[in-house]
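Handout, section 4.2: multi-component inputs.
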Amino acid sequence: MISYIIRRIGQSIVVLFVVSFLCFGIFQFLGDPVLTLAGRYATQEQQELVRRSLGLDKPFYVQYAIFIRNALHGNFGLSYTSQVPVMRMILERFPASFELALVAMFIALTLGITLGVVSSLRPRSPLSRAIMAGSLLGISLPTFLVGILLILIFSVWLRVLPPFGRGEVVRIVGRWRSGLLALDGLRHLILPAITLGLYQLAVLLRLTRGGMLEALAEDYTRTAWAKGLPQRAVIFKHALRNVLIPVVTMAGLQMGELIGFSIVTESIFQWPGMGNLLLTAIYESDHPIIVAYVMLMAGLILFINLAVDILYGILNPKIRYD
Amino acid sequence: MKGRVAWILIGLLVAILGSASILGMAKDTLVVAVMAPPRTMNPHGSDADANLQIMANIFDGLLQRDADGNLLPALATSWERVDALTWRFHLRQGVKFHNGNDFTWEDVKFSLERLKEPYPVSEFLAFGAAIAEVRPVDGDPWTIDIVTTEPVPWFVQNLHQIFIMDKESTETRSIGEIGEYPIGTGPYKFVEWVKGSYLKLEANEDYWGGPPPIKYVVFKPITESSTRVAALISGEVDLIQDVPVELFDMVKSSPNAEIITRPSRRSIWLGLRNSPGFPGSDVRVRKAIYMAINEDEIIEKVMMGHAFPCSQIPDPPTVGYDASIERLPYDPEEAKRLLAEAGYPDGFTIKLTGPNDRYVQDEQIAQAIATQLAKVGIRVELDVKPKAVYFPELDEHGLDFYLLGWFDGSYDFGRSFTKLLHTVDPERGYGGLNGASYSDPVLDKLLEASSSIVDPTLRADALRLLNRVAMQEKIAVIPLHYQEDTYALYKPSNVQFRPRPDGWIVCKDISFGG
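Output:
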């Protein structure tokens, strides 16, 4: 087990290096930050001056080596446009993205499992069919459309929920502000969290339903029915409990994605999270932010994967890592 | 069963949260939704209008512009051009920065010299480089001369966007701090900036021009245009910038929203290579392309009526604008004849490059032009791409035919010309955005002749002549249209707002009516 973990960490480091090289390489060719930073009327000479002060006149491999050296010291550089350490900028935005992902995952898990169980009990009933049709919509509707539709219905027509932003937030520590502790903050969370969580909801729903259909047909469930156990005990204690392992694994894996890839949702709802920061950085060719963001997300997803794998081994002793 | 409970809970939650939504309170805060978040609070750190318009609320320049684009006094009470190189300013006395420091001539000197510092301080490098000296006249600290290194005829035209900073607090703070906490002399004081969410400002009760009518202003960036419109219609914000063409009718049909428009300063036009051997070197071909484009159709079908045909690059308030220039008529038959005469009876193939995320309907305009030119036999290969890729290409001057939009922040066609159409000359910083290496010695001479004229009226005449020759005789570019600036107001807030030519939201000129 220990040697497995060490090996996995080793692999993760290699992956991080490859990711850093790829994104560093790609973003070198996506827009020249000097053009905007020197101003619209700058002469070529002045542009070169700016290029030198950014260190962008150095050959690619030198720039990359400097980047790696600094990154190993935990320094991902300063943003070109705002002159603030990029890690600070990204982490400042982390609470917003994290809370959004948390609430989205909460919605996806509770509704997904509940509806999955409901639709598995009487798979042919109209309610089950409606739920399945709805889940198909959840999987196939683009996030963009869902967001806009929700805004249209709840903000423009019904006028019950705000269309954008985080609303009132409460400062917890330092720069960590939370919207979970204020009524206004919660109201602002609802639409974006549904938008972000809808796809995951549909996936978890289908996973639960599939697992439940299988589990309900198993011998041990039939034995439980035969013993005369109450319905509640059979469904929740015997069937659902076995189904939950893959569902929770899936949810864990998706958590990283919810934090890292909420860019579309964040941009529709003007959610001040990391995805929004990334988008602005891409528009402005602010490469240090882009690279640091991608690295951070790669690290986060690798970490979650590893954690899920290890937990899986602990939860299910039948699994052996060699 | 459990599902039902969950639904009931959610229903309750929505009901509770919804009921808490609208609380009546006295209106002392103006909420403005802008298209782009401010990049920095360093007033020289970005020359983008998205940033400058916010700086204009916190800082003052030596001069300012009113809602018609006229140049007015600000930190300077009057000014004159002493000779070709020297500009004299009389400074306003008794002005204080938001931190209590007095405004003096040393702040002016410091701020102007700061412009020369390249990254990370200034995006006004070229302007800063032209300043040789700032000095008081005859020991009077309230009268200063600014001396330029070469004649800069449009020098004062730019001073509304060169903001004056406090020397003491700027020197003692790091550039990161300066970029997050601004200290100016302007009508509004900085309160808080939560990046990506909002920027809050408070009225400066001691403002030299009198306290502004509205106590608090909150700028919220909402980049997604449909969300911005939704925020307005639902009353979350009082004023939004830029209503997209496709949502225009939706806003109009809402009883709570009011649309305000005015022609934008920005013109959209096509640049065309004229190097020897290229079809565009023949002015008949240039005319043919011009006459084959049906601008009325573009405005009606692509811009949905929200644009105004233009016959030149500059807009009316710009020095060098000439109202007598007219568009060539739309005449595909004549275009075909001209092409045949120029030796292209069967047309030719040409690549049209343009951005797809920069101007209103930019990609669709390019497509419409390709279709229209096909009718006279010119086969257009479309090459549209994101601006982050397009603009660096433009900077390499290797395009054949390209779509660009332009307005001059300093209201001077001479300056625009050096950047857009003057023969590429990196040494002097000329032709930086001349995407197709357009070059015409006659036009270059006309421009150079205009630069040495000190008298503003004579110089304006010279620039009008340059503009006429470029547009009527040489067809230096093919003009399409001016965009339209659109704003929407939330009616119940009763905001009194008049759009400016530069599109800036200057809050001291905004009030709640009634």
